[in-house]
Fold these 2 entries.
Entry 1:
Amino acid sequence: MKNEPVNTRFVPVYRDAGFDLQDAEKAAAAFRSELDPLHHPDDFIYSRYRNPTVVAAEEQLAEVEGSEWALLTESGMAAIDTVLSVFQWAGEDRPWLFFSEIYGGTNAFIDEVLIKRRGLDIRRFVTGGDRHDMTAFKRMLEEVHPDVVYFEAISNPMLIVADGKEIIRLAKEAGSVVIVDNTFATPWLWKPLKDGADVVIHSVTKYLAGHGNLTAGVVCGNDPDFMKDLIQYRKLTGHMLSPDDAARLGDYLRTFSLRIQQHCYNAGKVARELSRRPEVENVLYPGLETHPTHDEAVKLFGKRGFGGMVTFDMAGKNDEEKRLRRDRFIEAVSGHIPLVPTLGDTGTILLPIEPVWGDKYPAPGMIRLSVGIEPAGDLIRILRRGLEM
Ligand code: PLP
């Protein structure tokens, strides 16, 4: 049985490094259509350019995001590099504006690559509190006239929810391209393209893949010319996802909407339980009315939920006592809730804030929980036991 179609319901894992182009004429046609948004099955050339298994997962992602297209990369950081690099043109020197409350890796990429190596004029909109001040943002747009505005829907680890629709509206009015990192909110809670964003990126490693064992990123958008630029940049820099990982992602995406609903449900339960505990001083969860950006969250997410992340601070008379309570808790729950520096997995995991963020958030008792999809009752029992230690 040599390479005949079989009655499968799944897209095969095409591991070809290069594809069989058969003759000179077909080869010429394939190379001519290399960057075309719609890819003909005979036109695959080389897997670093495009691969049918990867395209199949991209089509699933475009459906989830409600976008015209989605392009996969081998990590979330590769998606960030890809999207930011295609907006960079020699001789263009308008500044770019980044919100300061974004993923630490992105902030380091800005400092180490965009500023130090590429010499870009980068400005930061510093939140300066526990919510984004829209009046200050508007003023900054007028002052800076940025070419690009970049923000995250839900920040990390303080879970500040952006007034996403308003940020996009103001930035578009100012003539900026708007990029949203929507990793924490996921397309379940918000689809920024529908509100006028130009591009959305995700660390697929998190909720979209969702099982803690796949590293990937995605860039989603609607503009076909922009898609061509991205395909070209990804091809030239090799930021491509492997077909094996794309096939696994395709399987994981089948359960995304179920998983994210359970993440949100469990996180709500956990946040309310933690708020009632005497061992806990403060709980940050956008679904709680006490959260500084609860109103923004309701405005942006409606009734769909408030995400799967909960950050909380241990009570204690002083820093030492808080640190001690934090460490005892981490040890007590470690059999069920390991300390793992990622998020969005099916199982609940935690991260202490101080050892990871250092001076940025000097909170010795603070822990970030990425709430999983276990039965909520089991999870609450484990947390209670941890707090009672
Ligand atoms: N964006 C956000 C919000 C993240 O949290 C992360 C990683 O933690 C990234 C981007 C980078 O993604 P990756 O680790 O898949 O490269």
Note: The mean pLDDT is 96.
Entry 2:
Amino acid sequence: GAPGWGRRSKWRCPQGRRGAVRPGPGGASTSAYQVEGANLSHGKGPSVQDIKTVPAGTSELDVCADFYHRYAEDIALMAEMGFKTFRFSIAWSRVLPEGTGRVNQEGIDFYNNVINECLKYRIEPLVTMFHFDLPAALEKKGGWSRRESVDEFVEFAKLLYTNYGDRVKYWLTINEQNMLTLVGDVIGTCNMEGVTNKYKKLYQENHHMLLAQAKAMKLLHEMCPGAKIGPAPNISLVYPATCKPKDVLAAQNFNAIRNWLYLDMAVYGRYNDLVWKFLEEHDAIPVIEAGDMDIMAQAKPDFIGFNYYNTATVEWDDSPVAVTDSEKKDQQSAGIEPGVYKAYPNPNLLRTEFGWEIDPDGFRATIREMYSRYHLPMIVTENGLGAYDKLTEDGKVHDDYRIEYLRKHIEQIKLAADEGAEMMGYCPWSAIDLVSTHEGITKRYGFIYVNRDEFDMKDLARYRKDSFYWYKKVIETNGEDLS
Ligand code: BGP
């Protein structure tokens, strides 16, 4: 076979730094608003997640997994699994209740405690600065659509580097900025009241986020030499539905809009050409001030963090541009971007209980494509299976389906690493059960079961799932033993 194929897989440690995130599987992820609870107490201001109407049949965010009070117990369990890395996010409105200005010391102390607890076990904290939870006070002023949002994010970043930069060496800027732009309505971050051109609003917000990210990356390098930072988009390769040339063009269109826009900007500081054309056609070119593009060209990520759950498949689309609101709605729910692409259910893939396509080979294809475009070390910041786990009478959770999902995905990263991709690590979603973005806490992802139902908080006790013991062994053997 080709050179490299069939060699014993290895995970490469970028630049061989001392004290770097140790390569290989060995961590997992959470986000503040989904795991912490205590969302309106201990001095925390509301975020956009706390002012949204939660989807029918799903729980509020006041308890979640109660990580705010049980972080020490939870991190001890992560240490028992052998975690090398724990990815968590900082709730902006816990440290800055109004988004800017006044600091909530209790919030600062909470994350100090979380970080110190990780370090006690030699777990490397990998901190996401912003995971879907813009302070509500800023949203009320217009959120990311205002130019001021760039400076507000930089102020927040500076506060984090000042307080935690002595111990946190790995940072992620914005979780799934691409999903905020594409499906903000599902995540609960999208306010379209009175908006006539949604693209104009969304891509202006996007421009501000890109600029804020660039400034935050630059600031970290100035304030904390040696610390590493990267973006954390959700990257999934888009397949053409068939080998019809027009389907390939549609796949290129959606790849650009869904994936490359975000990484081309973060890595090369340039707008993707296909997206630029798309924005022109929709009268949605963002306002770009003098100097913006220079800042974005200068700021460089040290690595790419990315979330991967599944690939996407599209076909060519000839639909006419929708005129009425109901036509627009219909097109949106059918996954149609008129004249650009149309979603296509991939008949070759199995699905989870929640209807998500499962595609381990696509994981490898995605990694290959990213590495050939960007040549930066990569860390998987999310990947995992949401399911209705059941706790047995004797306190067990037999989640063999999750083990199988993770095994198949780890196999593919090992192959990708063997082909040359620099993989820094693997942090699946989620370390512990937490509230899903829109499907409640009964859609579970964790290695650790949290004993509560959607509305009955029970005792919130922690139980080790079968996947807990399995992952412990995977970490111990650095991904060699996946049985
Ligand atoms: C990602 C988000 C996470 C997480 C995960 C699972 O998009 O970054 O916050 O929730 O998806 O999605 P869901 O909770 O919808 O099942």
Note: The longest helix spans residues 198-223.
